[in-house]
Amino acid sequence: MEIDRYFATRRTVRRYTSRQIEPELLTRLLDEASHAPNTGNMQLYSVIVTRSAEDKQALAPLHFNQPSVTGCSVLLTFCIDINRFGLWCKESDADAGFDNLQMLLAAAIDTSLFAQQFNTLAELHGLGCCYLGTTAYNAPQIAEALKLPDGVVPLISLTVGYPDGDAPASDRLPIEAIVHEGEYRRYTPAQIREIYASQEARDDSRQFIAENSKSTLAQVFAEVRYPRATNEAFSKTLQKYLDSTFYKRGN
Amino acid sequence: MEIDRYFATRRTVRRYTSRQIEPELLTRLLDEASHAPNTGNMQLYSVIVTRSAEDKQALAPLHFNQPSVTGCSVLLTFCIDINRFGLWCKESDADAGFDNLQMLLAAAIDTSLFAQQFNTLAELHGLGCCYLGTTAYNAPQIAEALKLPDGVVPLISLTVGYPDGDAPASDRLPIEAIVHEGEYRRYTPAQIREIYASQEARDDSRQFIAENSKSTLAQVFAEVRYPRATNEAFSKTLQKYLDSTFYKRGN
Lengths: 251, 251
Prior knowledge:
The structure is a homodimer.
Chain A: H1 2-9, H2 23-33, E1 45-50, H3 53-59, H4 67-71, E2 74-81, H5 83-91, H6 101-124, E3 128-132, H7 139-145, E4 152-161, E5 179-181, H8 189-201, H9 203-211, H10 217-225, H11 228-245
Antiparallel strand pairs in A: 1-2, 2-4, 3-4
């Protein structure tokens, strides 16, 4: 099928032309994306559209000034949202007990499926997208900038625009490394080395190791890009933020 | 575009014919789905494929005996997985500090994007899928059944097969209810009532209210389907499970 080729070769696009996305197209794609599956058809998510140069500029440092934030046509911030549902319950004389870990996770999944469905639709329409991995790091500040009320947690940011130039397709681990038949198979050290061998052998991987004065690619990931101290510090910030804005009853 | 019609009218399929999915097709679709975006190209997920009738039967009660579990061709359990990455780091003399909330969330997003990319591919190939919202409820027991090691958390279960009969398309909230321009707009009570009016007016909604002897649709959601006591009890179980298998250092 023609469509398979798109999925197998899709790529992240970080550089965009100055062409703006037509507002009607954006709304239509978001509308179609909202038909993605979700928990109990409760749609526990919202999306904030950032279009203006000033607003993008204000958000840029919260995403560590990744250039795609100011270079995109629109920045979409997909949020977990139990606020709207809670207001509906309040209007309907119902007690919504959604301020807990299970519903946080359910809403995080639904928000992710909605975002990914939009990503696919946008790509199929010739747009390019880039997920920013930084949203949960600076969730409190992003929430403040976007005026999010309690119960609304920024989860995923996506920059969107018309692609400027070609972007490289990412390779992935061999699918056998990801799929387990019947039950989880324990990897042997030899299997682990084989799974990552092709990624380690790439020119850019060797370059990353050299640039960072490391001896293995795993060290680049675990010690330079996603070091324990950073992960733990941002986890504490996020937990504190969730405790004050989402887990209102201390669940 | 032809593809828009699929996205706007896609539906969840819970009943399947006895036709089995060709193993090569399943592997190909999972492979293509793995090209979905993910954090730092670390692919912090795994998927367990359950095919045999005995294995499905064993998992069925953990999904509250939803009929699609035993009626599907394959049951896929998509898991957060920092185990494989951690083993690679160990083999590579790197310290992986991923046992914390930030990486749990990042991996949960990546797992969700991978699952949704598979869901879309499967549907485009004529298969039908149904997400089960029950995976995180019984995560400890599902982990035991699938022999998941520490660092691997079952997150999403998807039943897959060839559709038996027609399934109804779900309606969704008006897209204006989900999208916010520039910043989050506070809903007025009148806006909330308008947002949910069409859902409340549906015949099946009225039937749910009557069957459950409730007076509003929100009460059916918040007090019958997803009641506070259940959400909170399952949240405690999940937190305890994460503390013992994922947050190994107490982050």
